[in-house]
């Protein structure tokens, strides 16, 4: 066994960012990754011309990878990313991320830390796929944002608009994930720019890059990886939408089995009936063409960073100096990719200036709340105003009739068996209702009977109750059972109480099933205090 197996290094291998109330063993297994720490240090040191790595810390970990900071004896720093087993298809996930970063840096001129070395094959001295990168230039924005004056925040908003302008500057002739041409495998095609671009950009793109099948985990998880399904690349955006529906129909026919959850709520009959899901996916495929806007620019293949939040941006002197977290970025339809950046998203009442009563308020907490409301409103207003001027195609997209409904239908179509059938069905019902706003070219090809609508509304009532429950626990427990290390005992105690209440109120077979499914929260369980 390699030296990476030493017990003191377990902290590097395992997920330590939180706990799960149920299915924890599986969740931790999906995120547990052993690798040869000594060899990673050696390769990192050689990559930057240093003699040795003198320290290594776990910098961050998400659901799909771990990030480490390696300090060298001469002061050089290397950032190492190690993918978890659940990150996606081996080789392809890492290869696509590296190529995407390179394309963003070299072709789009986006400030992204440089990849120094990488391996998409675990058959190497590190015994794992890895990416070695430069450390991000600048200070993490999340460390500064709350202390910024308003004009500093609005300057960052302008920077985000400029960043999105770069992402919009190039589109492709195919929809899929980006790879290096040298790493192309069967199914990949030459990456070709569609529309206006410098000839040098066209030439370099075709020479260095390819577009191939997607690495989106929804095309690979729970047995999908072994299925012969269409993963792209696609020539037309509607083919991507139909591939989602066909993928799920095929999976439901082959793999659908009762799902595991907290057991605190009962699923609807439709949720556990594969034919009900299949019927909805068939309807989805029938309306796929109409969901997409007809204007070509709105569905062009665009490499889009959809997670623009403070933790993914680094700044210096009011400028964005680094953008990180490119793992999920692909060349997809702009209509589905673009969204208001998380950093400036605001759904409250818009207030663009302080009200006359502000100065007379004695309650400092209320004054702080009003200031925050004005700042959020102004950030959103500036973003939308600058977007209208600099990126008019985004402004048009954001104001397209039933834009959210169309997007939601596609987003909720992903894996309804493991997630939930109700939101997906709700979208399809609303599509029927608003069909004339979506298109007036053809009659709506799908419909729902009165009986189907009545059943849906019954299911939706229960779903809304569950949604309210989870919303009330938003800062304590996620829907998959994740909770922070600090709140684990509190969360487990809460569900133990709910279990006892349920057992008191149920009887017969219903009680027996509930008791069995919720044993993870039993006070007899050693995990429960």
Automatic annotation (TrEMBL):
GO cellular component, one term: mitochondrion
SUPFAM superfamilies on file: Protein kinase-like (PK-like)
Record domain Aminoglycoside phosphotransferase: where: 283-333
Matching PANTHER family: ALTERED INHERITANCE OF MITOCHONDRIA PROTEIN 9, MITOCHONDRIAL (PTHR36091), AMINOGLYCOSIDE PHOSPHOTRANSFERASE DOMAIN-CONTAINING PROTEIN (PTHR36091:SF2)
Name of the protein this chain belongs to: Aminoglycoside phosphotransferase domain-containing protein
Lineage of the species this protein comes from: Eukaryota, Fungi, Dikarya, Ascomycota, Pezizomycotina
